[in-house]
Amino acid sequence: MILSIFVAVGLILVLSLMTLTGLTAPAQASLLPYRITTIPIESCACVDGFPGGVGVNTKTHMIYVTHVLTNTVSVINGSTNMVVSTVGVGSIPAGIAVNSNTNEIYVTNNNGTNVTVIDGATNTVTKTIPTGEHPEFVVLNPNTNKIYVLSTFGSSMGISVIDGKTNTVTSKISFNVFAVDGIGVNPSANKIYASQANNTVVVIDGNTNKKVGMINVGSCPRGSVANPNTNQIYVSRLCNTSWMTVINGSTNNVVSQIPLRDAVSDMGVDPNSNMIYVAGFNYGITILNGSSNNVINTIPFNTHLYGVGVDSERNKIYVTNSDGYNLYAVEVGALFPGPTSTSVLPNPGTGTVGISTNFTAVVTDTNSGTPTIPTGTVSWSDNSAGGTFSSPTCTLAAASGTSSTCTISYTPSKSGQIWITATYSGDTTNAGGSGTSALAVTIRATKTTVTPNPATATIGTGITLHAKILDSSLGTKSIPTGTVSWSDGGAGGSFNATSCTLAQFGTSTSTGMCNIAYTPPANAGPVTITATYSGDSTHKISSGTSALTVTLRATKDTISQKTAAPIVDVVTNFDVKVLDSSSGTKSIPTGTVSWSDGG
């Protein structure tokens, strides 16, 4: 199983050829500019999962890389060059193929007997398809939604045909005589090409899954790729020398034998630029012109390359290496986009929950040569903070001879620091990029009102106080929640509770209210009642007061005569009763009574 560890889709490396030099490649017909971006896909070199196969979704521009030692697949956003997810798969994931139409990813588990299916929308495993023991290579035809899985040895040696609609194996193509060491597909012709150990390539009709031809290509054929523009098939060969055999797909005739400098580890085709990319194990990437099959450039690498994936919509290729923990993005060709810078204004920014803030993306051509005005769209993200953009994208408009701008509005739903990211899609002459702004979001202001205000109450008689908490900020209002605590400033009165819980006030969409009962102190005079709102995750703390005047309790005097009738110069006794006549908690009047006969 040592060989299987080093095999991914199109990875046709033979360990015994690690030091192979090969023949000198043909003279280069022309040179193309290129740029290499290093994308870390492991946390550190100490966690090297041995990146291998590469798959690309040309519609979502997501890149998928298998790690044969950690049994995972890294998901990389091709717009930001960031790893966005890691998906666990089966044992020793080797080959990988991506259907851009269905957004499904197929991974062969070489130390097992199955293929893992990943949903590209959720980055989750949706199915495991039994295929037989030791599946290694996988290719697919997006036109027919058929997937072809090759097991290169064991009792299951051959090709399992999977229907992408049901993700079930519908057919088996057996190879019982000679070992099969590689597989390729031509989607436009619906032909499959399997390399055999007897120096031939078997042609299979994708409509019938029948073998319809056999082509003698020379010693040690391995992987193959097809150029749909020319209907030519490129077969790598690895023995004592490294060669590329070119087959005419219409006639099944060999039309060219191309000597290569290096042992081929993987290949890819960009039908839009009509270029073939050949990753060498020792010397880098060789680029062939798909029309002439001439070498038009060689990109040196000081590391051993393995898998190749092509994003034909962005004229990019992605290659993995065995010496480190990186993925390399390579931009090549006449449509090579120049550098840009993307900034977001304002930066930093301030905002309030529920209130929209405008952000402007500024994309500038930073090319040292003749600048152009960037065109295209900018997509926006708050990095899952839960806010709302007025639109997920905006279209750039020229702002100067070198820059373009577009503006959206953003409404945050929570407080704290939020990173607003603008990602420029790029165009044919300007590379994509992204910029960020740090938005500091504060919670919404509130206003606390206590009623009645002013208020009066009698000693010993309770009064009901109401606290209304209003969302007083602009923008989208919401009902404050939480509690209100109460105080009389130490006046000596008592509340029936220390706090009350807010509820919606009537049908208001911006006000909460709660009530409390207060019994004034035993002393008359002014009392300041304070209601303090505790705030919640969206609303600030606030307080309000009511001016309460505490009055004495009312009394009623009743006078009674103790003798029958008053007589001149004779003392008559009178009694007086003083009654606490106020409502509430009554008490016995104390003190003195003064008397008068009215003069």
Chain-wise SSE layout:
Layout: H1 2-5, E1 34-40, E2 51-57, E3 62-67, E4 72-77, E5 82-88, E6 93-99, E7 104-109, E8 114-119, E9 124-130, E10 135-141, E11 146-151, E12 158-163, E13 168-174, E14 180-186, E15 191-196, E16 200-205, E17 210-216, E18 221-227, E19 232-238, E20 242-248, E21 253-259, E22 264-270, E23 275-280, E24 284-289, E25 295-299, E26 305-311, E27 316-321, E28 326-332, E29 340-345, E30 349-352, E31 357-365, E32 377-381, E33 388-389, E34 393-395, E35 397-398, E36 403-411, E37 416-424, E38 433-442, E39 446-451, E40 455-458, E41 463-471, E42 483-487, E43 494-495, E44 499-501, E45 503-504, E46 511-519, E47 525-533, E48 542-551, E49 555-561, E50 574-580
What features would you describe in this structure?
The structure is a single chain. By secondary structure, the protein is mainly beta. The protein has four domains: 2-332, YVTN repeat-like/Quinoprotein amine dehydrogenase (Methylamine Dehydrogenase, Chain H), CATH 2.130.10; 340-442, Immunoglobulins (Immunoglobulin-like, Sandwich), CATH 2.60.40; 446-551, Immunoglobulins (Immunoglobulin-like); 557-594, no CATH class. Helices cover 1% and strands 53% of the residues. The protein contains one helix and 50 strands. The strands form twelve sheets. Strands 29, 31, 33, 35 and 36 form a five-stranded antiparallel β-sheet that branches. A five-stranded mixed β-sheet has the order 30-38-37-32-34, with no helix packed on it. Strands 39, 41, 43, 45 and 46 form a five-stranded antiparallel β-sheet that branches. β16 (200-205) and β17 (210-216) form a beta hairpin. The termini are far apart.
